[in-house]
Specification:
Blueprint (H helix, E strand, L loop, with lengths): L3 E7 L6 H11 L6 E8 L5 H9 L5 E6 L5 H11 L4 E4 L12 H9 L5 E8 L6 H18 L11 E4 H6 L10 H7 L3 E7 L13 H20 L22
Parallel strand pairs: 1-2, 1-4, 2-3, 5-7
Antiparallel strand pairs: 4-6, 5-6
């Protein structure tokens, strides 16, 4: 079994492929083992071709493809399902999430002997986005935090690490990647927040407009609030066992 899986959702990111994979490989060099799972979400450019070409020189690289674009959450979900590792980290495929920040994500999960930490969420500092995008994100994050009380200032950051079993137990829906802290807390997991850097986009273009994001965000927020209210009220615990079967446990 691999120690960590890195899942990258990608849609028309051909210009970012080579540098991103090289950066991830360098960041993972200290791990006993790892896998890189790139999920090509119906790209119409050379993204898949460039990933296939890299596989000859990057043995850790795996490629999954969606026949048509299904969205970031679908791409992440496909990657997590295919992962062999118990710990999974994600980052966006556009190169704006620096790969060197990845150890901040897997570190708390690999070090956790209690089995209680389920998610490590990156929170961007010094964002390299347009003013309109930053303002829209600030409003959306403020509204989400007020409604869900998830204690997170930036859930849109693609840098996240989690236990595979925890993620696959979350209810799947489109755009779920923006609500992972709330879903993790809903299921009784501890959430660790870490500050991460952010880069300017060097290739491709944003897949979301501010108006589009706002419209889908309202219905998503209502749905997640409903899921939290309807969560299971009791959890069976086997005394002396934790998520790794090593003792302890999540109550």
């Amino acid at each position: 079994m691999k120690t960590v899986a890195i899942v990258i959702p990608m849609h028309n990111e051909a210009g970012a492929v080579a540098a991103l994979i090289a950066g991830i490989r360098a960041a993972c060099a200290s791990l006993p083992s790892f896998e890189i799972i790139a999920v090509d979400d119906g790209s119409t450019d050379e993204t898949a071709a460039r990933l296939k070409a890299l596989q000859a020189e990057v043995p850790e690289l795996r490629l999954l493809q969606h026949a048509k674009a299904a969205g970031q959450s679908a791409a992440v979900h496909s990657g997590v399902l295919a992962a062999e590792a118990a710990v999974v980290c994600t980052l966006d495929g556009d190169g704006q999430n620096p790969p060197e920040e990845l150890p901040k994500l897997w570190g708390p999960l690999l070090a956790d002997r209690s089995g209680r930490v389920g998610l490590v969420a990156g929170q961007r500092i010094g964002r390299r986005d347009t003013l309109s995008k930053k303002l829209a994100s600030r409003f959306a994050n403020g509204l989400r935090a007020w409604v869900l009380q998830d204690g997170t200032r930036d859930t849109g950051c693609g840098l996240k690490g989690f236990r595979r079993e925890a993620f696959l137990a979350f209810p799947y829906f489109d755009h779920m990647h923006r609500y992972l802290p709330a879903l993790a807390k809903r299921d009784g997991w501890e959430v660790v927040l870490v500050d991460v850097a952010h880069r300017e986009r060097v290739a491709g273009r944003s897949k979301y407009g501010n108006l589009q994001r706002a419209l889908v965000g309202i219905s998503d927020l209502i749905g997640v609030a409903w899921l939290i209210r309807r969560r299971k009220k009791a959890r069976a615990v086997e005394p002396g066992r934790n998520a790794d079967g090593q003792g302890g446990g999540r109550g």
